[in-house]
Model the fold of this input.
Amino acid sequence: MKTKGAILRELNTPWKIEEIEIGDPKAHEIKIRMEAAGMCHSDHHLMTGGIPMAGFPILGGHEGAGVVEEIGEGVTDFEVGDHVVLSFIPSCGKCPSCKEGVANLCDFGAMLLQGEAVSDHTFRIHTADGQPVYPMTLLGTFSPYMVVHEASAVKIDKDIPFEVAALCGCGIPTGYGSSTRSGDVRPGDDVAIVGVGGVGTAALQGAVIAGARNVFAIDPVEWKREQALKFGATAAFATVEEAMNAIGEATGWGMCKKVIVTVGEVQGTDVDTWMSITAKNGTCVLTGMGNMMDNQVTLNLSMLTLLQKNLQGSIFGGANPKLDIPKLLSMYKLGKLNIDDMITRTYSLDEINQGYSDMLEGRNIRGVIRYTDADR
Done:
């Protein structure tokens, strides 16, 4: 079928809305009519080359929710009409990682940037002139239709707003899990959240719900610091340096048991700064993405050893997509997780470049594309 999508044809150029051709679902695949897509910083990394796809053109988008329109052979967990969230990391349930309980490291993840469908290693998306298109994490939510492997979809309740559901494909479980799973925040812990955009605000809520004593939000944007206080932060600061004394005084100079780093772009030169507010035997969780070509890190190795600190990477917040996405949405329905106020503004697909400009300028916690019939 012919539709359209937000395409990148080369680095450091704006998104361009183009006509594309979406193929039919093959074995273990489903076709989805998209209703909403979140605009995550990771898709901006496609534009800069920080996340290198296997080729061009690229169809962006890895947060989304929609309705199942067609199912392929062998699909048993979904029916036409089901509402689904697209999980940016698939969960096959059969590989060693899934069996070990770390579904966020599913072996299917090794193919996420290759563009080829995991079912048969062919392309489901093509340009109007027949050129293969590489969809972000085998999804491409910046299009009103998509065909994906069933391992990349999670069935949800039909009474959940699509724009809320979309954020649970990446930002919410990534942030929330960075505190509750990867960070293992415990009651009484003092926690710092560095960067309070979409992922950081979810991490903040995770720390509060887990029972943190103090939650210090750190972000250079004043408006985001104000929002962080509304989401439960104890105090908010523009920089780590500004926060240092206040954190020290509040913790008896023990500093933070957990530091969750959710900045839009991680710089290796900042790692030791984040470790400086991490307590003895504490953990600094790196959730934000750096450039994949960057392998230079500033870190005092002696202090890492002598104070027994931990530096922990985190992908998808350590989440099990099939389990955690429905749980987080049930918390939303009960009023225990505030996702509504994280959605700062909705956009049409044609407004995607404005949405990313707003994100980079710090005007959004999360922008969401809301599809209408005009997009299809």
About this structure: The longest helix spans residues 321-333. DSSP finds eleven helices and 18 strands in the chain.
